[in-house]
TrEMBL record:
It comes from Ginsengibacter hankyongi. Belongs to the ABC transporter superfamily. Macrolide exporter (TC 3.A.1.122) family. The lineage of its organism: Bacteria, Pseudomonadati, Bacteroidota, Chitinophagia, Chitinophagales. It comes from the Bacteria. Signal peptide: none annotated. This is ABC transporter ATP-binding protein. PROSITE patterns: ABC_TRANSPORTER_1, ABC_TRANSPORTER_2.
Length: 240
């Protein structure tokens, strides 16, 4: 296994001049390629803030974040945009699809930014929509898709750039049980067959039950890091 994410002493502080509030407080986090990890904790525990800093959407006030050996905290704004485009896939709770574009166009947009030629884009889109089971929805706009279908398109978009890993912030929060299960099946299959690393921020027990590692945050600190020994029997052992 290879290290994908290596975060050292990262912190995010609000109101530092008056009454400091630590959204993330001196966190160390190490993820290897191919992990399927859930980041859990109560509301306000710092899950989304930590995810956003790892994804380069927010900058830590302290510490360093290495992605494949690259310290993203040292990158300029333009360098960070380029790095995210080439290395990180994002799946959001609210889908974040562009409403005026079709499902195909939403996914293709990322590859256009990467300047991938048309023939390669067409082949990749065909493969992705087969993987998410929406080959017949290529030309539908988001408003014509169910919530579960929109989230599957969002996963395809996240994978379009062939990222090193995918960050998913509450990806099942707006889905019914069947849609959530289908989405998790797709992501688990991609994780197993393509060795894509997934890091979820979630309250959803359905996601937690499928994870092979569960990291618990409380008040901006990691208080528990648990590796699942048997996904079949849901046995777990605390590793630190």
């Amino acid at each position: 296994m290879n290290t994908v994410i290596d975060a050292h002493n990262i912190s995010k502080v609000y109101n530092p001049e008056t009454i400091p509030v630590y959204a993330v407080n001196n966190v160390h986090l190490h993820l290897e390629r191919g992990e399927f990890t859930a980041l859990v904790g109560p509301s306000g525990s710092g899950k989304t803030t930590l995810l956003n800093m790892i994804g380069g959407l927010d900058k830590p006030d302290g510490g360093n974040i290495f992605i494949n050996g690259n310290d993203i905290t040292k990158l300029s704004a333009n360098e960070l945009i380029d790095f995210r485009l080439k290395n990180i896939g994002f799946v959001f709770q609210s889908f974040n699809l562009i409403p005026v574009l079709t499902a195909k166009e939403n996914v293709e947009f990322i590859m256009q930014l990467q300047k991938i030629k048309q023939s390669e884009r067409d082949e990749r889109i065909k493969q992705l929509f087969q993987q998410i089971g929406l080959e017949d929805k290529l030309n539908e706009r988001p408003s014509k898709l169910s919530g579960g279908q929109q989230q599957r398109v969002a996963v395809a978009r996240a994978l379009a750039s062939k990222p090193q890993f995918v960050l998913a912030d509450e990806p099942t929060a707006n889905l019914d049980t069947k849609s959530a299960s289908n989405l998790l099946d797709i992501m688990a299959k991609l994780n197993k067959e393509e060795n894509i690393t997934f890091l979820f921020s979630t309250h959803d027990q359905r996601v937690i039950d499928r994870a092979r590692r569960v990291i618990t945050l409380v008040d901006g600190r990691i208080v528990k890091d648990t590796a699942v020994v048997s996904t079949e029997h849901k046995e777990a052992a605390t590793i630190r």
